[in-house]
Amino acid sequence: MTIDLHIHTLESDGSLSVAAIIQEAVKQGVRILALTDHETTNGVQEAMELGQKHNVNIIPGVELITAFKGKEVHLLGYFPFEAVIHSDLQSRLKELRQQRTYLAYEMVKRLQNDGFTLKWAEVEKIANPEGAVSKGHIMRALHEHENGTIQWPTIAKLFQPYGIAYLPFLEHPFEEAVDLIYECGGVPVLAHPGLLRDDRMVTELLSYRPMGLEVYYGYWEQREALIQNYKNIAQEKAILTTGGSDFHGLFGPVKLGEIDVPEQCSIELQRFLNLDF
Could you tell me if 151 and 177 lie in one domain? Predict the structure, then answer.
């Protein structure tokens, strides 16, 4: 069974609509899919309706950018459907989208101060007006603005630590985000720990409250070694393991459903959420 528990759509910084995601899932034989857009669950209802028609089981989710000791930490939250519409969750997500959009605006100003002629309006054309504008939108807008003359690795470096447009989102404390997910009936999962490049921080984060760990992930150098490393950490420190493609669109190097996520990951997650597929 093909499982993908980390997917983004046009509702945040993905490039495909919810309907197109479901079509791609069917094409790739994905039977269980979690929608985890950044700071929004707006696509979940449509995904569940389409999933029923196409025999794709949907797990509602969200990805939150949080802060811990001055560093960005990504956190996944998975929910039963009735918890997704929790008013406290939706109110906080709206605030976070506004804060992230303001930060993106500051990133564009940094690019402009360095000589780039990209305009904020060009970024807004790419982004969903109801979602958070993010560095992903800016990167795509910049690539289009420069007519593809700047290669993707060069663009990416502008937004990495010490890059001219790097501004970490530090408005949402990690602990607060974990508490929010629990208070609204969900289960938190620390996302792509290998990108933190600090396993001591990973174990410290996992010690805050019981949570899962995303073990099976594609955007890592030495993928197999890191997967084994985080399997070992999860056995000691996490309550469950998950995995997914972190799919943002067909342009990406990792395709939807490409990561081999064990069926046991879905079984454990469904058990915690009281889901029955």
Answer: no
Reference 58, options 29, 36, 87, 27; nearest CA is: 36
What's the one-letter identity of residue 24? E
Token digits of residue 50: 């389409």
Helices (H), the chain: 18-27, 44-54, 81-84, 87-113, 120-126, 135-145, 152-158, 174-183, 199-206, 223-237, 263-273
Q: Are residues 128 and 227 in the same domain?
A: no
Q: Do the domain assignments include residue 226?
A: yes
Q: What is the pLDDT of residues 158-206, one digit of tens each?
A: 999 899 999 999 999 999 999 999 999 999 999 999 999 999 999 999 9
Which letter does DSSP use for residue 217 in this model? E
- In angstroms, the CA 233 to CA 216 distance is 13
Residue 24 token pair: 């791609």
In angstroms, the CA 246 to CA 257 distance is 10
At 261, give phi and psi (nearest 5°): -100, 120
One-letter identity of residue 15: S
Residue 258 included in any domain: yes
Together in a domain, 61 and 196? yes
How many domains does one find in the chain?
Answer: 2
- The reply to whether the predicted model has a pTM over 0.90 is yes
Same domain, 98 and 74: no
Going by C-alpha positions, the residue among 63, 5, 62, 14 that lies closest to residue 34 is 5
- Scored b (16 or more CB within 10 A) or e, 144-156 reads ebeeeeeeeeebe
